[in-house]
From TrEMBL:
Keywords per UniProt: Oxidoreductase
Naturally occurring in which organism (per UniProt): Synechococcus elongatus (strain ATCC 33912 / PCC 7942 / FACHB-805)
GO cellular component, one term: cytoplasm
Coiled coil: none
Domain NADP-dependent oxidoreductase: 19-313
Pfam families hit by this protein: Aldo_ket_red
Stored PROSITE patterns: ALDOKETO_REDUCTASE_2
Protein's name according to its UniProt entry: NADP-dependent oxidoreductase domain-containing protein
InterPro entries recorded: AKR, Aldo-Keto_reductase, Aldo/ket_reductase_CS, NAD(P)_OxRdtase_dom_sf, NADP_OxRdtase_dom
Molecular function GO terms recorded: oxidoreductase activity
UniProt entry tagged with the keyword Oxidoreductase: yes
Superkingdom of this protein's organism: Bacteria
Length: 325
């Protein structure tokens, strides 16, 4: 059986790698530890490693590092000749709902990325008012028709908001391609709150952010170990010993499946998401080793029985807050 390593965004959007890399940590020294534990030189190597391993889809946002993530990614794009697919996000705040403000934000993101066009542009959070959403999406539809954007997406939208955005874009003759939401074995609310069902009904691709639960699903953090996360994650109660003890049965099963398939714990957790269909995980990567490990989630697949066993074991999993995403 041939295992797909690419995925189309929405019903007729661009084709991207079936696994991406989230770049929230690139240039961010508030939540993450950019400039202390890693720097741009390391991120340049991380980018090249991901591309070489077949992961060529990178997700960023204007708010990540206050634009620094986009700038770093833009410089990475200039260093190599391998094609990469880029997604970024517009952050909607009330004084930026006008068409000129939205267009300016897009132009500035493109300038930082050193690109004339990008594969995907997303609304980072749903605007508080319908009028704001209408103006934003009309502006993005015009940019789509001009070729600045190859696909339009949203992020953190619930089922009602997703249907609303889909309908508003349809009035402009433009498809809605993506909803980027938190989704992992530890965060499965989209399966029960209607968001995943609405996306499937509308042909909208799910981009799964925090697919490794900010490191909880890597096996790196265990209750009997001294290893603790860096940066703002240190105060996250989910990394405390008592919480990690509750997580251990799931990690043990991930490890057992990793042994069976000759894969790592993160690769199994990411492959479980890919197995859901039309879901693209976008784990973060701050080092070449992480990028290489992430790529190992591609090119194979868990059996339906193993997918179901992980789903059953994690069905009582706790929700991991999206924090500053």
């Amino acid at each position: 059986m041939t295992i797909a390593t690419t995925c189309q965004l929405g019903p007729n959007g661009p084709t991207v790698s079936a696994l991406g890399i989230g770049t929230w940590a690139w240039g961010d020294s508030l939540y993450w530890t950019y400039g202390q534990d890693y720097d741009e030189a390391q991120l340049q190597t991380t980018f090249a490693t991901a591309i070489a391993a077949g992961v060529s889809f990178f997700d960023t946002a204007e708010i990540y590092g206050l634009g620094e993530s986009e700038r770093i990614l833009g410089r990475c794009l200039q260093q190599g000749d391998q094609p990469a697919q880029i997604a970024t996000k517009y952050f909607p705040i009330p004084w930026r709902f006008g068409s000129k403000a939205v267009q300016k934000a897009l132009d500035q993101s493109l300038e930082r990325l050193q690109r004339q066009s990008i594969e995907l542009y997303q609304v980072h959070w749903p605007p508080a008012f319908l009028l704001g959403q209408t103006k934003i999406l009309k502006t993005l539809a015009a940019a789509y028709k001009r070729g600045q954007i190859q696909a339009i997406g949203v992020s953190n939208y619930n089922a009602r908001q997703l249907r609303q955005a889909h309908a508003l874009l349809a009035e402009q003759g433009v498809p809605l391609a993506v909803n980027q939401v938190q989704y992992s074995l530890l965060e499965r609310r989209i399966e029960t709150n209607g968001s995943l069902a609405a996306a499937r009904e509308l042909g909208v691709t799910i981009l799964a952010y925090c697919p490794l639960a900010q490191g909880l699903l890597t096996g790196k953090y265990r209750p009997d170990a001294d290893s603790r996360p860096t940066g703002a994650r240190k105060i996250n109660p989910q990394f405390r010993s008592q919480a990690l003890e509750k997580l251990q049965p799931l990690l043990d099963q991930l490890a057992a499946l990793g042994d069976r398939y000759d894969r790592t714990i993160p690769q199994v957790a990411l492959n479980w998401l890919i197995a859901q269909g039309n879901v693209i995980p976008i784990p973060g990567a701050k080092s070449p080793a992480q990028a290489q490990d992430n790529a190992g989630a591609l090119g194979w697949q868990l059996s339906p029985e193993d997918v179901a066993s992980l789903a059953q074991l994690s069905s009582g999993g706790r929700s991991l807050a999206a924090a500053a995403h």
